[in-house]
Specification:
The structure is a single chain. By secondary structure, this protein is mainly β. Strands 1-2-3-4-5-6-7-8 form an 8-stranded antiparallel barrel. Helix 3 packs antiparallel against helix 4. 21% of the residues are buried. The chain has a domain of 189 residues: Porin.
């Protein structure tokens, strides 16, 4: 007789039949950062300190390089000032008015009634000299051409020049010798024995423009004060002049003694100069 034991049957779980995990609650939405107030300014970001290694780094924008590979050096700005000059040469010409009796009422004393004592006309002149910085020293001559006579002057001058870019105002003081000649007088024949000469003192002001550093164009105005004398004519010459009916007895008395007078001139001229 066979005994059969009975055991309860146990069902084995299939690994594919695992129960699903319970559902999780959804994550809450992220809270956005508070917006900055319109009136509040955002501080700039802090610049990190520069280390020794950063100093050795090449710049972000290196200078341009030339075709040969070397960095180009920017050209310095051109110098606007004029260079130093040591010598000058000028030519001038313009208009001049002369009054030989400007400071002397008695015209007969100087002219003895033979020549006019006031005239206007043209003049030409020139000068040459040296320059040190703003100071000039030179020699200048001028000749005036008038209907009654010619007036020549030659002398020295000292000037100061003030460079302002291409402009140069200047002022001069000078003086020297003056003489009248080539008389065409109030009478048909002016005795050649009449000689009028003396000295002058001059004040000048002008303005020059330098289109280039070696050339100047300008204008000047000058005033001359003159002290002149007329030499007395010798008795022999006076007798000869009277015998030829060139002068009268009254004029002979005037010419026999020395005369003097004070006069002045005013001139406006254009000037061209060369500077070396």
């Amino acid at each position: 007789m066979v005994l059969a034991a009975s055991f309860p049957r146990v069902a084995l779980a299939d690994p594919d039949d695992q129960p699903a995990p319970p559902p999780t609650a959804p994550a809450p939405p992220a809270t956005p950062p508070p917006s900055a107030s319109p009136t509040e300014e955002t501080p700039p970001p802090e610049t990190p300190p520069t280390s020794h290694t950063d100093a050795n780094k090449p710049p972000a924008n290196p200078p341009p390089t030339a075709p040969n590979g070397y960095a180009e050096t920017p050209e310095p700005p051109k110098e606007s000032k004029r260079g130093l000059t040591w010598f000058w040469l000028e030519a001038e010409g313009g208009f001049e008015h002369v009054g030989l009796h400007t400071f002397n009422v008695n015209e007969q004393t100087l002219s003895a009634g033979f020549i006019d004592t006031e005239a206007s006309g043209g003049d030409v002149g020139g000068g040459i000299g040296a320059r040190f910085l703003i100071l000039t020293l030179g020699l200048r001559g001028r000749m005036g051409f008038f209907n009654a006579w010619q007036l020549g002057r030659i002398g020295g001058e000292l000037g100061i020049h003030i460079p302002i870019t291409i402009f140069e105002p200047h002022f001069e003081l000078g003086g020297g010798y003056a003489a009248l000649g080539s008389f065409h007088g109030l009478v048909p024949v002016v005795p050649t024995q009449i000689s009028i000469h003396g000295g002058y003192a001059r004040a000048t002001a002008g303005l020059d423009i330098y289109p280039i550093s070696q050339l100047s164009l300008g204008a000047v105005a000058s005033f001359d004060f003159m002290a002149l004398i007329r030499d007395g004519v010798s008795p022999t010459d006076l007798t000869s002049l009277q015998s030829k009916n060139i002068i009268t007895a009254a004029q002979s008395k005037l010419l026999a003694v020395q005369g003097s007078g004070y006069g002045a001139t005013f001139s406006i001229q254009g000037v061209i100069g060369l500077h070396l």
